[in-house]
Amino acid sequence: LGCGLLLLVALTALMGCCVSELISRAVGRAAGGIQFLGGLLIGSGCALYPLGWNSEEVRQTCGNLSEQYELGTCTIGWAYYCTGGGAAAAMLICTWLACFSGKKQKQYPY
Prior knowledge:
This protein is 64% helix and 0% strand. With 110 residues, the chain is an all-alpha fold. It is elongated, with a radius of gyration of 20 Å.
C-alpha cells in the first residue's frame, strides 16, 4: 500500500512535466502528505518485520537463539536497510520539500 502511494505521487509528478496546470501549491502539499503516509506505512512494515523472527521456520534456519528482534545466527541483508532508508527519505526529505511547493520565485530584471 505504501509503495502504491509513492508510485501515485511519482506518476503525478511525471504527468506534471507534460501538463503544467496540474501542479499547484495545493497539489504539491497533498502529494507531500501522501508521500509522508506512504513512507510511514513502509517504515512501519520495516519496524514490524522482526516480530516474525520467533517463528518455527526462522528458528530452523537461524538456530534456536532467534526471538523477536533478536535474529540469532543469521544476519540482516542490505535490502532491509535500503528499505528503511527509503522510508525515512520519503517521510522527511519529500515532505520537507512539499512544504516549499508553490513558493514564488524571485523575479530577476535580466
